[in-house]
Design brief:
By secondary structure, the chain is an alpha/beta fold. The protein is built from 18 helices and 10 strands. The protein has helices spanning 6-10, 19-24, 30-33, 38-43, 48-63, 69-74, 79-83, 87-94, 98-104, 117-125, 194-197, 245-255, 258-264, 277-283, 299-304, 314-319, 322-332, 375-390; strands at 145-148, 159-164, 168-170, 200-203, 223-224, 234-239, 267-272, 291-294, 349-353, 360-365. An 8-stranded mixed beta sheet has the order 3-10-9-6-7-8-4-5. A two-stranded antiparallel sheet has the order 1-2. Helix 12 packs across helix 17. The model is unreliable at 107-166 (pLDDT under 50).
Length: 391
């Protein structure tokens, strides 16, 4: 399930003509498109060919085989027919590699013998949708932002009523276990530029391009993080653990909006505090198609916590925390897989850093496990940065 923009996912087939209407109706990212049910498709006046094309592309996306999407869709066969093709036919007709063929015809990903009943049931039962991004969510001329980042189980929304202090943002954290467990304190001071300027990072992956082969082990020398934003501003998504379902969901959601950030001239980086090679391969490019950085000293994570790592135990931070459980359900509804490998108690967050010595424009802290920086807010800050540069 690699990260793609909506345009890349739809490709050059019969769905392309629907793109403007899809975006207008809020089907603006791949995870949302993939959970369209039959009622949703009918509301978009999809033809049978378009419905079949969406099913094929969803299946290929889940298999990590999107490089074959245009060619397979153009053949005119339905997904059940494709799954019944022989290895020789798949190789001859689509130039599919043998390992990719094995992945494509792996019907064990479904519980039924015909392969599509489970997918159809998933489409019918799930109705996860994201609100479209508002054009303006911040008050001009002030660092104060009025917001409530309270999420429903299936649909994250931003409501009024919560005050973010300056450019430091975090979710509310309620008392837990009937008040017996106090929530972690909020950090209300932005990290100084000096806290991130000299951080040493190592590039673990390049930016993914369609058709690129799986990650090959390479040794990239460490570099100063400030080199990354010397000429262009950047967003740094600091992840608690790449195998965490909530971290994967946030990464996938953020990277699906890459065309917007490209238009704003903003780079995207994911930051890990632990390097487990197998976990990086499982994370990239399935959930994040951009550059992945290794912060060996965990300095980005310390900067988020005002100089100290923000840590919380699984029992108090997740099992006894209704907000964290709600975040988990939100990610689960996206159909994302997970594992429990690696250190999972160090909390992450997000930085938006201006070019040169512009400093930290925005800082979001994962106060509850699975908190996301509101995407609308991140895009708005980046838009304001671009406007200031142009001004």
């Amino acid at each position: 399930m690699a990260s793609f923009s909506v345009e890349e996912f739809i490709g050059n087939g019969v769905l392309k003509e629907l793109l403007p209407n899809l975006l207008e109706e809020g089907w603006e990212d791949v995870p949302t498109l993939k959970v369209m049910n039959s009622e949703d498709m009918d509301s978009m006046n999809m033809t049978q060919k378009q419905k079949e094309a969406l099913g094929i592309r969803t299946y290929l996306h889940d298999c990590g085989l999107m490089q074959y999407a245009d060619k397979i869709e153009a053949c005119g066969r339905s997904l059940p027919e494709l799954l019944n093709l022989s290895t020789i036919d798949l190789s001859a007709q689509f130039d599919m590699k043998r390992g990719h063929i094995a992945r494509f015809i792996n019907r064990t990903r479904f519980s039924d013998p015909h392969g599509l009943q489970a997918l159809s049931a998933r489409r019918t039962s799930m109705s996860y949708k994201e609100d479209r991004i508002p054009k303006r969510l911040l008050s001009n001329g002030s660092n104060s932002m009025m917001r409530s980042n309270e999420y429903s189980l299936a649909e994250p929304k931003i409501k009024e009523g919560y005050v973010f202090k300056g450019i430091v943002a975090s979710e509310p954290a309620d008392p837990r276990a009937c008040g017996c467990v106090k929530p972690p304190p909020a950090v209300d001071q932005v990290a100084p530029y000096s806290a991130i300027e000299n951080i040493s990072v190592q590039k673990l992956t390049p930016e993914y391009k369609i058709g690129m082969e799986p990650l090959v082990k390479t040794k990239t020398p460490p570099m100063k993080a400030s080199e990354l934003w010397r000429h262009k501003p950047a967003v740094f998504l600091c992840l608690r653990r790449p195998g965490c379902i909530m971290c994967r969901a946030e990464a996938h959601k953020l990277f699906s909006q890459k065309p917007i950030f490209d238009a704003l001239g903003v780079q995207l980086f994911a930051v890990l505090h632990e390097h487990i090679e197998a976990e990086v391969k499982d994370f990239w490019p399935r959930y994040w198609g951009g550059v992945v950085l290794f912060d060996r000293g965990r300095d980005f994570f310390k900067a988020l916590g005002g100089g100290n790592l923000l840590k919380e135990k699984f029992l108090t931070g997740f099992l006894l925390n209704p907000r964290a459980i709600s975040n988990y359900k939100r990610a689960k509804n996206m159909g994302i897989q997970q594992n429990f490998k690696g250190e999972g108690e160090i909390k992450g967050g997000l930085f938006i850093v201006g070019s040169g010595k512009g400093g930290i424009a925005y800082q979001f802290i994962e106060r509850n496990f699975g908190d996301w920086a509101p995407l609308a807010e991140v895009i708005e800050i980046c838009t304001q940065m671009q406007n200031q540069q142009q001004g």
